[in-house]
């Protein structure tokens, strides 16, 4: 145990070790608070005094939540070695996170965004204080858990840091070779003499490599055999990198370098975030310091990402999940364009559902007023045009699956076991994505079908209303024809032709309405069949146990990997331990093969069944949706036709005066409504009231009817029903009301 006046620590409680110092976990003697102490070794004192004091001065100058805090500078016991007492980060470093098999293919998007935010904020504080770090890497980015349960990352290890303004240069070389700027790599690693000076942008290169590593789970530039074994090719890759490329890998000895301008498909980041991040990486991983972005542009572009809000969108037609990053003040039109860039679905073809219901987005609505989405509750995008399903984009995890060597090698076996666990984690993630995709397909299609069924019901209601109107018009038309034929006979009057034309138009509408009913019935049947299929698939998905089976295999594999790490620490195994190690290695291989088998034979098969049928179902649904739209337009046109027929029959297009001009109606105290026996209609309902037509002139002693409606009412007034045959031509009708007694006489033109 060692101590300073206020802190003590065990020498085997090592948190990290470097060339000039060792970091221990320590405690405050009075409060028991955990801290980290950095104890400098003898090699550190061989540096110039100015360099030894630089780290102290830099740390004293900094004060930010994303930079490890300096609490005190003390001396250790009798040795009088300088000790930095710093904030203790209990969750290790970003490097520890990336070495976890779960993150073998990069951090989750949520965690990566936290890293991005914390590192950018910390670096911004350094630049505000005119400090260049010169050793940015995952191992120098510490992690602790905040009170809200989220990670907080902090920059640490300022042993290489110094004050440097944007326009200043330095010539000394520091840093870790995989993250070094190529100019510094040439001098520090290859030991080639040069007279170059370096600026603050060397930190940007290190940040670019760090961000790529965090996003992809691997370094961006990898020569065959690895960066530490093939340094010349490593230098060649970084210096000959084409503009815009963000990674280069040599897969065979003396082989060609494979350049990539995108993050790998295995990366866990969404397409939406990748499209924002890749241009930043391309411009800070630039070997030419004149072409490389400055910190101002870097901060502007990264802050632009961090200030955006995210909307989760599931394209039902394509069966793909998307994350759309836009600013809170952006409007619907910008959102639709952003979705178009990811899905290629034109804005005017985009329709949305949210939580089971159609979701209309007003053109000028700001994104901050959209409903909040999550990855489990996204907006569902429906294209009004038929699109082929694409599904989840992934690389088969069985491809390149790590394999064990036959002999026992505790170091190699532990490394391979770690790779196997990483592959199994990735397999499990893909399986969950496939299952989630199935869930969204079935849920989204169910919502669309329910919406279409509702449209069918509303259409039928409108159709029934049209049928009632049609029946009334047909009845009126028939009665009017009877009136004309009785009074004028079949003398070829143009009015009779007009009525015949109305009758023909009504017959056409009748046929159309019947056809609509038949079509809607077919659509409802088809939608019902699809719903039945969806119910079966959803039940199968709910009963699926493949994910749990793979999780059980993973848990067993993690226990074996834990044993392998213990064996690696021992370096040599006793005979019995070696036999157990061999069995564990066999079991690990068996469990890995079982996971792949479950994934391919169960998860993928069920997913392909749903995806294959999804294309056919979506085509049917889109066709029904289009036909419903056409039917709706046709029904609207039919209603217009009925309205025109109504106007023709009731608004004087067939003038009644041509028939009844010889006849007059005498009025004494005429009321606004008159009673009539409804037996004049089929299925009489007793006494009812009919309003007098507006075209009746009430200002004279005689009333003249000037329309078919008036004529028809006159027919009612004169008792035109089954008993009217025996009535005289001069008909008298008397009726008493509480206020008056009125008397109506008509010269009837209706007799048989």
UniProtKB/TrEMBL annotation:
<feature type="binding site">
    <location>
        <position position="38"/>
    </location>
    <ligand>
        <name>ATP</name>
    </ligand>
</feature>
<keyword id="KW-0547">Nucleotide-binding</keyword>
<dbReference type="GO" id="GO:0045087">
    <property type="term" value="P:innate immune response"/>
</dbReference>
<keyword id="KW-0723">Serine/threonine-protein kinase</keyword>
<keyword id="KW-0963">Cytoplasm</keyword>
<dbReference type="Pfam" id="PF18394">
    <property type="entry name" value="TBK1_CCD1"/>
</dbReference>
<dbReference type="InterPro" id="IPR051180">
    <property type="entry name" value="IKK"/>
</dbReference>
<keyword id="KW-0418">Kinase</keyword>
<keyword id="KW-0808">Transferase</keyword>
<dbReference type="GO" id="GO:0005524">
    <property type="term" value="F:ATP binding"/>
</dbReference>
<keyword id="KW-0175">Coiled coil</keyword>
<protein>
    <recommendedName>
        <fullName>Serine/threonine-protein kinase TBK1</fullName>
        <ecNumber>2.7.11.1</ecNumber>
    </recommendedName>
</protein>
<keyword id="KW-0391">Immunity</keyword>
<dbReference type="GO" id="GO:0016239">
    <property type="term" value="P:positive regulation of macroautophagy"/>
</dbReference>
<dbReference type="GO" id="GO:0002218">
    <property type="term" value="P:activation of innate immune response"/>
</dbReference>
<keyword id="KW-0399">Innate immunity</keyword>
<dbReference type="InterPro" id="IPR017441">
    <property type="entry name" value="Protein_kinase_ATP_BS"/>
</dbReference>
<dbReference type="Pfam" id="PF00069">
    <property type="entry name" value="Pkinase"/>
</dbReference>
<dbReference type="InterPro" id="IPR041309">
    <property type="entry name" value="TBK1_CC1"/>
</dbReference>
<keyword id="KW-0067">ATP-binding</keyword>
<dbReference type="GO" id="GO:0032728">
    <property type="term" value="P:positive regulation of interferon-beta production"/>
</dbReference>
<dbReference type="Pfam" id="PF18396">
    <property type="entry name" value="TBK1_ULD"/>
</dbReference>
<dbReference type="InterPro" id="IPR011009">
    <property type="entry name" value="Kinase-like_dom_sf"/>
</dbReference>
<dbReference type="GO" id="GO:0004674">
    <property type="term" value="F:protein serine/threonine kinase activity"/>
</dbReference>
<dbReference type="GO" id="GO:0032008">
    <property type="term" value="P:positive regulation of TOR signaling"/>
</dbReference>
<dbReference type="GO" id="GO:0005829">
    <property type="term" value="C:cytosol"/>
</dbReference>
<feature type="domain" description="Protein kinase">
    <location>
        <begin position="9"/>
        <end position="306"/>
    </location>
</feature>
<dbReference type="InterPro" id="IPR041087">
    <property type="entry name" value="TBK1_ULD"/>
</dbReference>
<dbReference type="InterPro" id="IPR000719">
    <property type="entry name" value="Prot_kinase_dom"/>
</dbReference>
């Amino acid at each position: 145990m060692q101590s300073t006046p206020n802190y003590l620590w065990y020498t085997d409680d090592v948190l990290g070790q470097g060339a000039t110092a060792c970091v221990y976990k320590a405690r405050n003697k009075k409060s028991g608070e955990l801290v980290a102490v950095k104890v400098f070794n003898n090699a550190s004192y061989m540096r110039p005094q100015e360099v030894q004091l630089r780290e102290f001065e830099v740390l004293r100058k900094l004060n930010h939540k994303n930079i490890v805090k300096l609490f005190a500078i003390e001396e250790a016991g009798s040795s009088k070695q300088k000790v930095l007492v710093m904030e203790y980060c209990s969750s290790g470093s970003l490097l520890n996170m990336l070495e976890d098999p779960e993150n073998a293919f990069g951090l989750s998007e949520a965690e990566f965004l936290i890293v991005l935010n914390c590192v950018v904020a910390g670096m911004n504080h350094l630049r505000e204080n005119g400090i260049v770090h010169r050793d940015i890497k995952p191992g120098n980015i510490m992690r602790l858990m905040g009170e809200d349960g989220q990670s907080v990352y902090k920059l640490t290890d300022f042993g290489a840091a110094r004050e440097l303004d944007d326009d200043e240069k330095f010539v000394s070389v520091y840093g870790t070779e995989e993250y070094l700027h190529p100019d510094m790599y040439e001098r520090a690693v290859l030991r080639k003499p040069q007279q170059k000076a370096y600026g603050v942008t060397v930190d940007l290169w290190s940040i670019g490599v760090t961000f790529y590593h965090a996003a992809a789970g691997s370094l961006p530039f990898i020569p065959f055999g690895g960066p530490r074994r093939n340094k010349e090719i490593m230098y060649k890759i970084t210096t000959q990198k084409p503009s815009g490329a963000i990674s280069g890998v040599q897969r065979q000895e003396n082989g060609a370098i494979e350049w990539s301008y995108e993050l790998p498909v295995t990366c866990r980041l969404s397409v939406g975030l990748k499209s924002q991040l890749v241009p930043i990486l391309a411009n800070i991983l630039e070997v030419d310091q004149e072409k490389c972005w400055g910190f101002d542009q870097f901060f502007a572009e990264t802050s632009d990402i961090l200030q955006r809000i995210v909307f989760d969108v599931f394209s039902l037609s394509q069966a793909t999940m998307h994350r759309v990053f836009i600013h809170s003040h952006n409007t619907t039109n910008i959102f639709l364009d952003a979705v178009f860039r990811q899905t290629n679905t034109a804005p005017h073809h985009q329709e949305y559902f949210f939580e089971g219901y159609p979701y209309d987005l007003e053109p000028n609505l700001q994104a901050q007023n959209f409903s909040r989405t999550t990855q489990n509750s996204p907006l569902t995008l429906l294209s009004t045009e038929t699109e082929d399903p694409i599904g989840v984009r992934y690389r088969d995890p069985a491809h390149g699956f790590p394999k064990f060597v036959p002999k026992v090698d505790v170091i190699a076996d532990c490394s391979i076991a770690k790779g196997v666990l990483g592959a199994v984690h990735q397999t499990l993630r893909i399986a969950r994505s496939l299952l989630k995709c199935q869930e969204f397909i079935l849920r989204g299609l169910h919502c669309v079908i329910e919406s279409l069924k509702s449209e069918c019901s509303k259409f039928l209601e409108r159709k029934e209303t049209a049928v009632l109107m049609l029946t009334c018009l047909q009845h009126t038309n028939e009665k009017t024809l009877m009136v004309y034929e009785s009074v004028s006979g079949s003398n070829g009057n143009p009015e009779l032709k007009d009525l015949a034309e109305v009758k023909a138009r009504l017959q056409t509408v009748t046929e159309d309405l019947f056809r609509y009913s038949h079509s809607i019935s077919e659509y409802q049947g088809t939608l019902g069949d699809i719903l039945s299929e969806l119910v079966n698939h959803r039940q199968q998905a709910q009963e699926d146990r493949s994910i749990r089976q793979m999780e059980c295999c993973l848990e067993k594999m993690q226990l074996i990997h834990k044993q392998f790490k213990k064996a690696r620490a021992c370096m040599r195994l006793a005979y019995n331990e070696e036999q157990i190690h061999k069995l564990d290695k066999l079991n690990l291989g068996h469990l890995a093969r079982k996971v792949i088998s479950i994934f391919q034979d169960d998860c993928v098969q069920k997913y392909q069944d749903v995806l294959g049928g999804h294309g056919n179902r979506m085509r049917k649904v889109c066709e029904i949706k289009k036909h419903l739209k056409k039917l709706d337009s046709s029904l609207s046109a039919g209603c217009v036709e009925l309205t025109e027929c109504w106007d023709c029959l009731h608004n004087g297009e067939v003038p009644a005066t041509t028939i009844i001009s010889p006849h007059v109606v005498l009025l004494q105290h005429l009321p606004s409504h008159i009673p009539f026996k409804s037996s004049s209609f089929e299925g009489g309902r007793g006494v009812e009231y009919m309003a007098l037509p507006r075209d009746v002139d009430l200002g004279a002693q005689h009333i003249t009817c000037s329309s078919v409606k008036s004529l028809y009412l006159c027919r009612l007034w004169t008792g035109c029903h089954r008993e009217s045959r025996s009535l005289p031509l001069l008909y008298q009708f008397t009726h008493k009301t509480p206020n008056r007694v009125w008397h109506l006489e008509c010269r009837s033109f209706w007799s048989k």
